Amino acid sequence: MAAREVKFADVSFTLPDGRSLLQNISLQVAAGTTTALLGRSGSGKTTLMRTVNGLVRPTAGRVLVGDEEVGRSELLALRRGIGYVIQETGLFPHMSVERNIGMSLELGDKPKAEIAKRAAEMLALVGLPADMGKRYPWQLSGGQRQRVGLARALAGEPSVLLMDEPFGALDPLTRAEMQTMLRDLLRRVGKTTLIVTHDLEEALYLADRIVLLEAGSVVADLAKDEVRASANPAVKAYVAATKREDAA
User: Taking the CA of residue 116 as centre, how many other CA atoms within 13 Å lie in the half-sphere pointing to its CB?
Assistant: First the structure.
C-alpha cells in the first residue's frame, strides 16, 4: 500500500473531568517521511499518535490519513492499513513467531501458505533467520522480540507506521543496533512513520522532522537539522538537558 500523508487539523482532546490532554494541534506529516513526536512524559505525544488509528477520539478537530477522516472511518479497515509497534511488542506468547507476524493476514482469511511466505519475507526484512518463525516469543531476546513486533506491523503492507517508544525497554547496545536497523529499513520501505520518544538523540537519528510537545501543545515543529541551532526556548532547554556534564 502506498504511503499516505497524515494530517492533524486543530485537534484537541479533553477528558470528562475537564483535563485537556491535547490542545488545538495542527500538523501535516508528508507521505513517506518519518516524524518524531518528542517530549517529556505526560506531554501528550502518545495520545496524539493514538488519534491516527482511532484508539483516541479527539473531542475537537479532525485527523486524516490520506483523504480519509479517521473519525468517520470503519476502524477495522482503517487499522489494517496502519502498522503499530509498541514497547515490549505486545506479541501473543502462545502463538509462534510466524503466526504473530501473520496475524493481520490470518484475520483477513489469507491462505496459510501465503501467511508463511509473508512471515518469512518479514523476518528477512528485519534481519532475522527464517527458522525463527517456528519459535515462540518467550524463546527470543528483547531485541529479537522487538524485530518481530516490527515485522508484524509491516506484514500487512500498511501505508502508515506508528511506533510508541519501541526501544525504551532495551539495553543501550541492543537499542543502538535496533535504531540502525530501523533507520535503514525505513529508508527502504518508504512508510509514513510517526515515532513517539523522549530521547532527543534517537529522534534526530531516525526522523526527518521533530515535533516537540509540552502540556498537550506543539511548541516546535522543525527539520532535524534545525533542532540544535533553534532559538526556541523549549527546544533549547530540551537540547541543554541532554548535554549535562557531571560538575565534579
Answer: 5
